[in-house]
Design brief:
22 helices; mainly alpha; four-stranded mixed sheet
């Protein structure tokens, strides 16, 4: 067995990683967002109750729920309830995300200090700062496992290809648009098989395959596809174990009627992306486009590498300047994106380009940002989250370039002063970019809570229900306790379908074993007192066994009491009212 020698970089990594882990564990209980975080668990929750994917759940993100079903099933079997499940899910996320970060470092450690900062930055970042597993966090982790595995793989490593394929399959469950990356890969393999003879990649000096050409071989494609096919088969087996093909075909068109995720063209999606983009970032895109054009056209760019690197870092700093002015908010994802400017420039300016990292990690990471753009309804804020994947390569490209610049500075002390100055400027700018990004990520982790105030103001600890153990503001805590206590009235009623006309998706978790009488716990427009009645009625026509016996509407929502009472009379429900809610019951 080959002995592993610990280096200074290893010591630095474990020191920084331990500090980042301590920060994350301290932060875990703070904040209660009411909506998104609980929604992620409602899908696996209803699957544990016997519901079927696609047939019973119509939300477009539902496939990722299958990956969380083992966690929810295990938690419910251990504790016989959902109390504290949100906090447990957060701890689970921190542990598993930490293991992915550890995997990243161990696979990339040959790149020295750059791999340290790449792995620690990856661990610090959580999309929207919702520290729980969701279709966002799972997609990032699974795609990272796949791409880092491929980017550091040696030719002929079949088990690694199988595992990378399985991880990619999981990422597609979280972001279905990622499937286009596989078809693009298949096309590249076919083209290479037709127009190029098979050749072995020349190993690079650092031990990583030089250009990763072996990944385009038919054998690599076969084993990667096999790795994808195995979990895909399990997924289909689960789907058809609960619903027949005819039933799925009957409801399939309704799955794409989600008003929050309208079927827009590519041009419309890109337009939406730019509309949501902050002005500082629009200017940054334009500035970097001009800089990149100048870099590509400059035949002597290698002599001015320090200048181009400093210019790229300046564009990134321009974007980060906006972040510093508006950092503690729900859309802090934007701090990720600017490093991609620096990373792309660094790769182009490296004399010794790590091509396998570029083609197996950086480009698929950029493809993921495109997939998120096509699938998300919040444009820029979601897309910028996806840069967590290509940024891993950006750190390494920057580290490689800084190493080359530093070596040139030591070997060419007699160069003209302007050239030495540009070299030093590039070194300083590159180091500053890494320091700024890490500092922003630490500040956000310590200060920002999704849809909540900063941690020192979250003094109320929730003691009951699915949010047990979480700290929130006193006002939110009081509202939660009142609503949770009111829901307990259903504990003495027969278990039957229930529809909750509220954006507070955690209420379904609080009801434990009550079947979901709705196409999703997330009802579009519900926080504005608007419910898509036509879609609900279509759901009940196609799934008559899901017609709710109970309908629960908390007070304080935008639903009019008289309207609810009229609806109860129209559809044969008994109307009840308490100080906290309006309830409709069908006898």
């Amino acid at each position: 067995m080959r002995r592993i020698r610990l280096t200074r970089a290893d010591g630095l990594f474990f020191l920084l990683f331990a500090a980042a882990l301590a920060l994350a564990l301290w932060k875990v209980p703070y904040g209660f967002g009411w909506y998104d975080e609980a929604f992620y668990l409602t899908i696996p929750h209803r699957l544990t109750l016997g519901d079927a994917l696609f047939l019973d759940e119509w939300h477009l993100s539902q496939m990722s729920g299958l990956l969380l079903t083992p966690f929810v099933a295990l938690y419910r079997s251990l504790f016989q309830c959902n109390d504290g499940i949100l906090l447990a899910a957060r701890h689970s996320y921190v542990v598993l995300h930490g293991l992915v970060a550890l995997f990243v470092y161990l696979r990339l450690r040959r790149f020295g200090a750059a791999s340290v900062f790449a792995a620690v930055s990856f661990f610090l970042f959580t999309p929207f700062d919702i520290m729980a597993y969701s279709y966002n966090t799972m997609a990032i982790d699974l795609l990272t496992l796949c791409c880092v595995g491929l980017a550091t793989m040696r030719p002929g490593n079949r088990p690694a290809l199988l595992l990378s394929g399985a991880a990619f399959a999981g990422s597609v469950l979280c972001c279905p648009y990622l499937a286009f990356v596989y078809f693009l890969y298949a096309a590249l393999v076919a083209v290479r098989g037709i127009f190029r003879r098979r050749r072995r990649a020349v190993p690079a000096a650092d031990g990583v395959s030089g250009d990763g050409a072996f990944l385009l071989s038919a054998k690599a494609f076969f084993f990667l596809t096999l790795g994808i096919a195995l979990p895909a088969a399990l997924f289909l087996l689960f789907v058809f174990s609960r619903a027949s093909l005819s039933e799925l075909l009957r409801v399939f068109p309704a799955l794409f009627t989600d008003p929050e995720h309208a079927d827009l063209s590519l041009l419309s999606k890109l337009s939406q992306y730019l509309r949501h983009c902050q002005p500082y970032y629009r200017y940054g895109f334009a500035a970097y486009g001009l800089l990149l054009l100048a870099l590509l056209l400059d035949k002597n760019r290698m002599r001015r590498r320090g200048l181009y690197l400093a210019g790229s870092c300046a564009v990134a700093a321009h974007c980060w300047l906006w972040c510093c002015g508006d950092l503690i908010n729900t859309h802090y994802n934007a701090i990720n994106m600017p490093l991609a400017f620096v990373g792309l420039s660094a790769y182009l300016l490296c004399r010794k380009k790590p091509k396998q990292l570029f083609f197996a990690l950086f480009l698929p990471g950029l493809a993921y940002t495109f997939a998120v753009c096509m699938s998300s309804n919040v444009g820029f804020y979601a897309v910028s989250m996806a840069y967590a994947v290509p940024n891993l390569a950006s750190f390494l490209f920057l580290g490689r370039l800084l190493g080359e610049l530093n070596a040139e500075r030591a070997a060419s002390s007699q160069d003209p002063a302007p050239r030495r100055l540009l070299r030093s400027l590039g070194l300083l700018a590159g180091c500053a970019a890494v320091a700024v990004l890490l500092a922003l990520q630490v500040i956000v982790k310590a200060r920002h809570c999704f849809f909540e105030e900063s941690p020192e103001r979250l003094t109320c600890r929730i003691s009951v229900g699915p949010a047990r153990g979480l700290y929130t503001s006193p006002a939110n805590g009081q509202g939660y306790d009142r609503l949770y206590a009111d829901l307990q009235d259903y504990r003495d009623r027969p278990r039957d379908n229930i529809l909750l006309l509220t954006e507070k998706t955690w209420c379904y978790l609080a009801l434990e074993d009550f079947p979901y009488g709705t196409y999703s716990a997330w009802l579009s427009g519900i926080n504005r007192g608007v419910v898509d009645t036509e879609r609900l009625l279509l759901y009940y026509r196609l799934n008559p066994d899901k017609i709710p016996r109970y309908i629960y509407v908390p007070k304080g929502s935008s639903f009019d009491r008289d309207t609810l009472q009229m609806a109860a009379e129209r559809y044969g429900y008994r109307f009840e009212e308490s100080a906290v809610s309006c309830r409709l019951t069908r006898e």
